[in-house]
Amino acid sequence: MKRLPLIAVLFALSCFATAQRLPELAVPESYKLTLTPNFDKDNFTGDETIRIRVLKTTSQIVLNAAEINFQDVTIASSSTRQRANIRLDKEKGMATLVVDKPLQPGTATIEARYTGILNNELRGFYLGKEGSGKKYAVTQFEATDARRAFPSFDEPAYKATFDVSVIADKGQTAISNGKIISDTPGPVEDKHTVRFATTPKMSSYLVAIAVGDFEYVEGSADGIPIRIYGPPGSKQYSTYALEVGEQCMKYFNQYFGIRYPFEKLDMIGLPDFSAGAMENTALITYREVILQLDDKHASVGLHKEIATVIAHEMAHQWFGDLVTMKWWDDIWLNEGFATWMENKAVAAWKPEWNLNLDDVRETGSALNVDSLQNTRPVHQPVETPAQIQELFDGIAYGKAAAVLRMLEAYLGAENFRAGVNAYLKQHAYANATADDFWSALAAVSKKPVDRVMPTFVKQPGAPMVFLKAKCAGNSATVTLWQKRYFYDRALFNSGSNPELWQVPVCMKEGPSPTSAKAQDKCELLTKKEESFVLPGCAPWVLANAGAAGYYRSGYDPEMMRAMAHDVQHDLTPAERIMLLSDAWASVRVGQQQIGDYLALAEGLRADRNRAVMAQLTNQLEYIGEYLVTDGDRESYQLWVRRLLAPIAKELGWQPRAGDSDELKSLRARVMHTLAYTGRDPDVLIEARKLTEQAFESPTSVDRTIAATALSLAAMNGDASLYDRIFDHLKKASTPEVYYLYLQTLSRFSDPKLLQRTLEYALTPSVRSQDALGIISRVMENPAGARLAWDFVRSHWPEIEKIGTGFMSGEVVEATGAFCDAGLGEEVKDFFSSHKVPTAERTLKQSLERMNYCVDLKSQQGSKLASWLEQHGASAGE
């Protein structure tokens, strides 16, 4: 499954309050399942046969079932066939089938007839609507919602084969995990029955069915047929996804050394879909905007997003579907691996996108989450669905991927790949644990993977590795010491932090009198403090050469200033990104002054790398939004304008023939910071001009910069502009354009217009998957924070109803953007009486972020004002 920051989408999963593990009485071997959706009554009927192997003598079999209305259940064993009595436990989502005569160990068959609900909660077997209002039905089962569609052993370790049939209305398309082996009229008039091939053994959460009016384009790669499905009219927007799928298929077949393990690959874009995408075996489901696009006019960002999401889900076909974790405590291995792999696969096709630099930025984002006291270990024991749900977070995706990147760098790319392939071959069509993965990598590489990785996986947080160098002749003794990094200054400075990591550290010496070229050396830091000798004596040593390490780096101010002097020439773009991240982390805890960070920024004024500038400008926007006071705002704005003016002049605002995708993205990023943080009047005027041009001729403005221009125009926009954006929203020709205008509604500053946006979010015109995202974006807009928070409190029953399961956590997470102690107390008080069980950790993290923002402003605000007084007006002169 893929979660996407692009449109702030999250997924809805079931939420039960108590433990939910099936007793070890039986295991499934095969399912035969026939589902018949009824779009007139918004329900479905099910006819199911489960072949099981009874493990011990028992008078009962326990299955998972939720919102299932049983008509008849029988269990056949040997020559005995018994009708089962059914005891339902709605709280646990279980059904206990009780028979009079005990079942003996061996083969048995459960037959069940039942009905279920085509719900509107975007989970289980649910109801969606196309733009025309026509209904379709589709499944979303991860993690614990297969039980809403069919009684099952709904745990990942219970793999079985599935024979699926669908009885659909005449003219409707039915798709499932297997290829179609028959499509026959009946069993009644105006119906047809579609029967699918038997699947390989797989977990229940990977079963998928889609029934509706769909069309497709098709192709193939390495002999594997690939189809891209979507609503009527989507074929013209599906060719890019098909190309991506074909490229990724070839890459993964080669990388994994295992031919795609299923007979076909279908991918479908759905208008109503809560997740970004879901890796169901051989039938991957997507949010429509993350699969279909106008290839000629779509933004660079959406091209990248769709490519990497497809790569992510396709990687799961091997790592997650072919080999599946035994229990949800190892879901991080599935999601972390697919997150690590997604950019790798796309980079082989589009090297010019420099996706390896986005990996470095994502490592910094993961380290930010891990800097909180209320982070969690990557491997987290869980029992209940609510606990399982909370595992799909930045730790499972971002940190796990970053740790795997570090591991690949430590082992070497080919050793890592060989270990992956050995693991997949050993556990194909079965289940495995993280320990199985480490063992395979250790066996191949002959390195202590099984000792290194548990220190990053089984304890929370991340280390800061401090470095100090002392020269003696033509060599330097480098002393490294580690301790856990916290945003909380008291915890960070505490001497009682017991955590110890085994850290693969790569060091890089700057130019020295004996060597004009930087030198690298890698060591394994296994103690709290160790010393190493480097063959040179340079003014600085970088503690994370190559930027592959999952740790913060700490330097004394003198060394930081020396690096800032050489940063542009002697550090790679990846190293510059990580140095910026580490320098800001030092500012957060008072190890560096904010002026040192801004001096480092000035050292990058000649940088033209898209990813480096994105890292820098995001931080400059944070400073402008949260740390600058009214008294020094004008000075800071002037400093930002002077810092970025040279690159803005060089880039211009109109695309030129031959502009690369990287340059287009850089132009949009610089424009946003100049206008949003620097309040550059000329750029704001240009943004409004581009907005007007986009209104008149949408394809005449590069979509990559159009989103930025619209956002900036809205910042000072009036009711007239709001109405025009709203009108274009209703007439949007593609999903991308629709979301472009929808998101712009949250960027206005006028409270009356933001109130209109909030109210619109709760109308039937907005799909439930989008409503909380709109509200959250207004909360994250400084002009709308208080307004949106009051709106949330006064409309909580409606928000809670829309945001079933995990989606409620989106609003909780958005409160972390507040930087006000009073608002923090209100958030704490409100959610103490309005519980969101699936976002308990999210709430703690949001409260932490608020507190640390307030603390950072108090400790660095006056220092920022002092630095600006000395440098702001004279910068660049």
Produce a short descriptive summary:
The protein is an alpha+beta fold and 877 residues long.
User: Roughly what percent helix?
Assistant: 40-55%
Distance between the termini: 51 Å
Low-confidence stretches: 5-18
Backbone structural class? alpha+beta
Strand content: 15-25%
- Specify Rg, calculated over alpha carbons: 28 Å
Q: Can you tell me the overall shape?
A: globular
> Reading side by side through the largest sheet, how are the strands ordered?
5-4-8-2-1-11-14-13
Q: Please count the beta strands (DSSP E, at least 2 residues each).
A: 29
Largest sheet: 8 strands, mixed
Overall pLDDT: 92
How many helical elements? 27
Index terms:
22% strand; 877 residues; eight-stranded mixed sheet; alpha+beta; 27 helices; five-stranded mixed sheet; 43% helix
Topology:
Layout: E1 26-38, E2 43-54, E3 58-64, E4 68-77, E5 80-83, E6 85-89, E7 94-103, E8 106-117, E9 124-129, E10 135-140, E11 161-169, E12 173-176, E13 180-185, E14 191-196, E15 209-212, E16 215-221, E17 224-230, H1 239-256, E18 265-270, E19 277-278, E20 283-287, H2 300-318, E21 323-325, H3 331-349, H4 355-370, H5 385-390, H6 394-411, H7 413-427, E22 430-432, H8 434-445, H9 449-457, E23 463-472, E24 475-484, H10 489-493, E25 503-509, E26 519-525, E27 529-534, E28 541-542, E29 552-554, H11 557-570, H12 573-588, H13 594-602, H14 610-627, H15 633-651, H16 661-676, H17 681-696, H18 703-715, H19 719-730, H20 735-744, H21 751-761, H22 768-780, H23 785-794, H24 796-802, H25 808-814, H26 821-833, H27 840-871
Parallel strand pairs: 1-11, 17-18, 18-20, 21-22, 23-29
Antiparallel strand pairs: 1-2, 2-8, 3-7, 4-5, 4-8, 6-7, 9-10, 10-15, 11-14, 12-15, 13-14, 16-17, 19-20, 23-24, 24-27, 25-26, 25-28
